[in-house]
Amino acid sequence: QVQLVESGGGLVQPGGSLRLSCVASGSIRNIYAMGWYRQAPGKQRELVAEITSTGSRTNYADSVKGRFTISRDNAKNTVYLQMNSLKPEDTAVYYCKFRVYWGQGTQVTVSS
């Protein structure tokens, strides 16, 4: 079993920034790609960003390109999502994914 714990969400004004963290623990025998997803009320969960096991390649949803940056620290079993220039449409619960495991999510609300 693998446990994922996200943190860093909160309320921020449009144009602001937040940094999400996701720490993985448990039976982690190998390093795999990880990703951040989000789900807004009434919408399906969608991929926000993903990063390969070594961090050498990343992929972003078009809606966040140029504003969000995913990174990871394998020594700490942690993946980050730096979110800049936040917009109200970024409001959602953000989830971390590792293989088939999901975190519990962290709420991000962008509002003035």
Fold and architecture overview:
- The chain is built from no helices and 11 strands.
- 0% of the residues lie in helices and 53% in strands.
- It starts with a strand and ends with a strand.
- The chain has strands spanning 2-7, 10-12, 18-26, 34-39, 46-51, 58-60, 68-73, 78-83, 92-98, 101-102, 106-110.
- The strands form 2 sheets. Strands 2, 4, 5, 6, 9, 10 and 11 form a 7-stranded mixed beta sheet that branches. A 4-stranded antiparallel beta sheet has the order 1-3-8-7, with no helix packed on it.
- Strand 7 and strand 8 (78-83) form a beta hairpin.
- With 112 residues, the protein is an all-beta fold.
List key phrases describing it.
mainly beta; seven-stranded mixed sheet; 53% strand; globular
User: Which regions have little confidence, pLDDT < 50, spanning 5+ residues?
Assistant: none
Helicity level, as a percent range? under 10%
The count of DSSP E runs of length 2 or more, i.e. the number of strands, is: 11
> How much of the polypeptide forms β-strand, as a percent range?
over 45%
- Mean of all residue-level pLDDT scores: 95
Give me the secondary-structure category. Answer: mainly beta
Distance between the termini: 40 Å
Largest sheet: 7 strands, mixed
Tally the helices: what do you get? 0
Q: State Rg.
A: 13 Å
H/E topology pattern: EEEEEEEEEEE
| Shape field | globular
